[in-house]
Amino acid sequence: MRILVANVNTTASMTESIAAQARTAAAAGTEIIGLTPRFGADSCEGNFESYLAAIAVMDVVLAYPEPFDAVIQAGYGEHGREGLQELLDVPVIDITEAAASTAMFLGHKYSVVTTLDRTVPLIEDRLKLAGLDARCASVRASGLGVLELEEFPDRAVEAILDQARRAVEEDKAEVIVLGCGGMSGLDEQIRTRLGVPVVDGVAAAVTIAESLVRLGLSTSKVRTFATPRPKVVTGWPFTVNQNTDGTQAQVDAR
């Protein structure tokens, strides 16, 4: 089984970290391929960067030349999952939904700890759109930017831990979700020090993707995520436009 894990930003070192975390969760025989978009922002912390990343992720996934069995979009609260589901005939898992749905198996309420405060509304909106907001106790900001998570890992752990503790004590959360792909690999440290389940979205997405592939299930194409109708799309930036089996997709660039 081959799973593509697409970073939403252009920071290659973060792609490597995300892919490494995905491999720790993957079963034997699952190949993890980390993808970095060829264009976009070096970190995604707002609507402009998120919408840009949505296009960039579709571009890099469709440009991948070999067959694959599932795709993980490794950006918390980012746009674009729906577009991938229309374009692909394999399961597409967003770490936002994977983490939140996993957390709901582990406690009555969960809280998300993310990066900057400006990203909180984006995450709240994505959780609401996915129908996962009812059991979300809170979305809290650590105050650190995405790139700071990688540059200052010790500070990142302390900032996340502080907000996670407040979420448990003040918001009555019973599970903590790490609300950024750049937080991958920090779950064990937070869990050990806080004493509650901590869900890493990348790891959760890998296990969900593997399960769907093994069950032979993928996105329904009968309505909402039907393959795009054939048409000319002027200025479409995709480098390659193909299905997962290498055949030409229905949307053609001009």
Structural commentary:
By secondary structure, this protein is α/β, with parallel strands linked by helices. It starts with a strand and ends with a strand. It is built from nine helices and ten strands.
Order of helices and strands: EHEHEHEHEHEHHEHEHEE
Q: Could you report the average pLDDT, rounded to the nearest whole number?
A: 91
Shape descriptor reads globular
The helix content is 40-55%
- What is the radius of gyration? 18 Å
Secondary structure class reads: alpha/beta
**Counting H and I runs of at least 4 residues, what is the number of helices?**
9
Question: What share of residues are in beta strands?
Answer: 15-25%
Count the E strands: 10
- What's the arrangement of strands in the largest beta sheet? 2-1-3-4
CA distance, first residue to last residue: 33 Å
Task: Describe the largest sheet.
Answer: 4 strands, parallel
Uncertain spans, ≥5 residues at pLDDT below 50? 246-254
Record keyword descriptors for this entry:
about 250 residues; alpha/beta; four-stranded parallel beta sheet; disordered C terminus
Task: Give the SSE map.
Blueprint: E1 2-7, H1 12-25, E2 31-35, H2 47-63, E3 70-74, H3 81-87, E4 92-94, H4 95-103, E5 110-114, H5 120-129, E6 136-141, H6 146-151, H7 153-170, E7 175-178, H8 187-194, E8 198-200, H9 201-215, E9 232-233, E10 252-253
Parallel strand pairs: 1-2, 1-3, 3-4, 5-6, 5-7, 7-8, 9-10
Helix pairs in contact: 1-9, 4-9, 7-8
